[in-house]
Amino acid sequence: MSVLFSLFPPVGFGKHRLLLSSARRMAARVLLAFSFTLVLTGRLWADWPQAAGPHHDYRVAGQAAGSFSVAAGRNVVWKSPLPNTGESTPVVSGNRVFVTCHAPVTSDAEAGSTILGICFDARDGKELWRREIPGTRVTDMASGFSDNTAASPVTDGKHVCFVNVGGAIRTFDFEGKLAWKYDWVPFGRHHARQQEPILHNGNVILLKTIADDLPAKATTKGGAKPLGRDRRYWTRLHAFDLKTGTIRWVAESATSVHSASQWNRLPDGTPGLLTGRGGGHQPPEEPYGLSLLNADNGKTLWDLPISGYSAHENGVWQGRRGYCFVKMKHYQVDMLSGGLLNPVSLTDGVAVTRMVDNRYQREVNTKMPAGRKNRPITYHTNLLVGKYHYFRTFQGHFLGRIHVESGKVEYLQVPVQRVRESGGKKLLWKEARKNEVRNNDGYIVYQDKRATLSGWGHVSAASPVVVGDLLYMPTMIGMVYVLRWNSDQLDADSLVSISDLGPAGKTWSLSSLAFAEGRLFARTQKDLICIGSPNDSE
Predict the structure, then answer these.
(1) Most CB atoms closer than 10 Å: which of 24, 368, 394, 464?
(2) What is the per-residue pLDDT across 427-475, written as a single tens digit (0 to 9) for each?
(3) CB 115: neighbour CB atoms within 10 A?
């Protein structure tokens, strides 16, 4: 209760008297989740070996801090400086944290090709080793859509694989000894911001062009255009043996650079990858739509062409059902046959909780404006948990969710930024402060001015994560909205905190959070951060 009152001191809430009982119910559910996990695994928490976590779905049982502030030093266990900006999610295994960043610069810089793979001690944040990973493509740093550090590391507990999206793979053991490497020339300027490497059956599955003999000019938009849209320039998922670097398979169906493929299992146990094609700048892979691949061999289980489909989303699915956004409608996907089912409007007949005259008001069966862009979500912010499909809106600053069984759509307006200053705290609702996007040495490290904006709308955003009953939704300016995802309705009482990864206007991050041993791990353009468990003193 105190958290919500501190967030919105002038705002009157009608349901705060229910928060105490809600907290007790939440504590009981967390205890049950702890017990279940302990019975299955013999331990309370698993490692976070890839961007999507131990179960490939950005979700894990356990309990993490529901409120924190790196700007105020609250609930921060340690913070370690990074040599330059980067976008990858930190992954955690065996008391090691692995992350990538661009190679250091000695002045303001807009672009680079070489990245670093760095290993830290998860207990105290001490840097243990770093390795250079040269790329074949120069790309702008701190882009809101991708840079060479966008792919997160993957680890099997013995090896760690770093991917330079600019055309290089380096795999090391935990002491930093090189196990294998692979280089290629990427095609085109636009590349996979959210196509995170996937760990499956001893393989690391990642996205690259089929052709291995492209000229260096093919890495630029201007150099790639004359080559056309031939299939040899398409990007497909490739499975590399994590220990040896041998290519085990190449996917039959293509994947566009905008899509975020996701792993899960069909009811008969078949491991699958839901992947997509489409999106901005007319990616060459066709037909636009979705495909389900067998994760063991890359064979196509089905293809689903979808008119007007944009692949700027996570391919969420579980069992017999998948879910996707097509313009301003939400669809279910039959994962057995590959067909669209049960369209639901994201604008008509919805419930909206918004701030009106300094108070939250909830309207039901109302209309939500589509906005001039007619796009449903801030890219890649969708996550499936329980019976809910969560996302951030493209237009305005609303957290949204769809009840996948009933089709009920709900929205909650949130401040775009929380500012901590010496005189107190304030909430900004319409526009965030311009971000300076400087690295730890004080150098400006971006080219595209959109990197200085709020991180809502036209940006390839970081994916949210779920730990137990809490959903953590990060933004590019370092805000983290913490929600009780299983609340009966999405309203002000669902919001546990608006936490931060650093000072307003000086914090930039396009990385998801990770969770291991009761603690959250995050990174910004300046720091690697360990956030305490609920039992740590603040």
Answers:
(1) 464
(2) 999 999 999 999 999 999 999 999 999 999 999 999 999 999 999 999 9
(3) 31
For tokens 């911001």, the residue is: 193
Give the largest Cα separation in the chain, rounded: 66
Using one digit for the tens of pLDDT, what is the confidence trace for 309-340? Answer: 999 999 999 999 999 999 999 999 999 999 99
Single pTM value for the model: 0.91
Neighbours of 429 (CB within 10 A): 14
CA–CA separation, 418 and 427 (whole Å): 5
111 contact partners, CB below 8 Å, separation of at least 6:
138, 139, 140, 141, 447
Task: Locate 15 and state its tokens.
Answer: 């349901």
| Contact between residue 162 and residue 131 where contact means Cβ atoms under 8 Å apart | yes
Q: What does the pLDDT look like over 216-261, one tens digit per residue?
A: 889 888 888 888 899 999 999 999 999 999 999 999 999 999 999 9
DSSP 18: G
Secondary element (H or E) of residue 402: strand 398-403
Q: 223 φ, ψ to 5°?
A: -75, -25
Q: What is the DSSP letter of 260?
A: B
**Residues 6 or more apart in contact with residue 435 via CB below 8 angstroms:** 451, 452, 453, 476, 477, 505, 506, 507, 508
